[in-house]
Write a structure and sequence with these properties.
The chain is α/β, with parallel strands linked by helices. Helices cover 26% and strands 22% of the residues. It folds into two domains: 339 residues, Alpha/Beta hydrolase fold, catalytic domain (Rossmann fold, 3-Layer(aba) Sandwich), CATH 3.40.50.1820; 60 residues, no CATH class. It is globular, with a radius of gyration of 21 Å.
Length: 419
């Protein structure tokens, strides 16, 4: 099985013999293998047969943990090519996160009638423009969840793989008013391509534009919009031969510029020897996974930082969904996901420190500098899913280990904040 199929832009809705033969010829030329999705649905996943305007001809599925109250967040999932809603629901790890942290899932599903390989049409102008096609259908699903399930309209997120990752970028650009954040897994920048021919070049080797050029394209998704922009996480395997690793950097450039934050990292670190991250003013985070090919990063298991099921396009490396939950504040933290500009930027770096002993850096302000591990041990912070948070204020201090240092002061009895 090759990886090319996962984001392949096959002609949309071929209605003639010539179009069908062209699509087949492209598939054969690239050595594609079209996968057949499992017919059975995962338990608990429900189809929503009517959800409003559906110009893109998509199907909607939903999952709500038992006892989920009104006002809970909702995460929209967008599968990759050859997959369906049930496949992504079962493998991505987001079901475990929904059960653990209490939010709903909405899953959009593509059909072979729209695209021969069931890819979302992230390269078709009629499907990526606000108010049109598949983008409008996904937006209608969000509106349905808010109206019917009582989901919090200020805590709506979107995530997707490959073609679904590219469509995630579409939704963040075309509907920044609907989403508080999004996670793009092996995706493509918004409006990198507006034709099938251009789509192949965007996938590999990738298209180079300046941050300002990418940002202008993102802003064109909703011209004149002046509200807060969604937070964005980008996950990119560095051995991906389907979507070139360069796309991770281009996505970073697009959304740092669109969000109005510096393109120079304000924090960096690692989750393991293979997984590194860079953060940009608390608004954009780029994860690079060494040795990983094309797929969603998962880490099967029952620990709090594990999730997902390994399989085709679900690669056993790290639980991306767990880290997205923390980044977006879906773990019950005190960050405000509805107003990205209010989130304090993480100031941790990967500079090693050989001491876990706290020291006063500014006696008048009672500032204490120590590793995040030492802060947690001393009761100035707590840890969740591998990150440290200031006790009381809930400010994200970065990774929970001895290599990341933070400077805190006690703002009130038992409550700590960054100096």
């Amino acid at each position: 099985m090759t990886e090319h199929v996962s984001v392949l832009p096959i002609l949309r809705r071929p209605t003639t013999l010539v179009a069908a033969l062209l699509a087949a010829s492209l598939a054969l030329a690239l050595g594609l293998v079209v996968l057949v999705s499992p017919p059975a649905r995962a338990a608990g996943l429900q189809q929503v047969t009517s959800f409003g305007s559906n110009p893109g001809g998509l199907s909607m599925y939903s999952y709500r943990p038992d006892g989920l109250p009104a006002g809970a967040p909702v995460v929209v999932e967008l599968h990759g090519c050859t997959q369906d809603a049930a496949t992504y629901f079962a493998g991505s790890g987001w079901r475990e996160m929904a059960d653990r942290h209490g939010f709903a899932l909405v899953l959009a599903q593509q059909s072979s009638g729209n695209n021969a390989n069931k890819c979302f049409n992230w390269f078709e102008s009629g499907d990526i423009t606000r108010g049109q096609g598949e983008a409008a259908s996904i937006a209608a699903m969000v509106d349905h969840a808010i109206a019917t399930y009582g989901s919090d309209p200020k805590r709506v997120y979107v995530t997707g793989l490959s073609a679904g990752g590219a469509m995630t970028a579409v939704m963040l650009a075309a509907y920044p008013d609907k989403f508080a954040g999004g996670s793009i897994n092996a995706g493509i920048p918004y409006r990198c391509a507006t034709s099938m021919t251009a789509a192949f070049s965007c996938m590999s080797p990738g298209t180079d534009k300046s941050p300002a050029q990418w940002g202008d394209l993102a802003r064109s998704g909703y011209a004149g919009y002046a509200g807060p922009r969604p937070k964005v996480a980008v996950w990119q395997g560095q051995s991906d031969t389907t979507v070139a690793p360069r796309n991770g950097e281009e996505l970073r450039d697009q959304f740092t510029n669109a969000n109005g934050v510096p393109s120079t990292a304000t924090a960096s670190g690692s989750l393991s020897s293979a997984v590194t991250w860079e953060e940009y003013d608390g608004q954009v985070r780029l994860y690079r996974i060494a040795g990983m090919g094309h797929g969603t990063a998962v880490d099967p298991g029952t620990a709090e930082n594990q999730c997902g099921t390994a399989g085709s396009y679900f690669i056993d490396t790290v639980c991306a969904a767990c880290h997205d939950v923390v980044f977006f504040g879906l773990d019950g933290g005190t960050t405000t996901p509805t107003d990205p500009t209010s989130t304090s930027p993480t100031t941790s770096t990967t500079t090693p420190t050989t001491s876990n002993t706290s020291s006063t850096s500014s006696p008048g302000a009672q500032c204490v500098t120590a590793s995040n591990y030492a802060h947690v041990t001393a009761g100035r912070a707590y840890h969740s899913l591998g990150y440290a948070y200031a006790k009381g204020s809930g400010q994200n201090l970065g990774l929970y280990n001895t290599f990341h240092t933070s400077t805190l002061r006690e703002s009130s009895s038992g409550s700590w904040e960054k100096c």
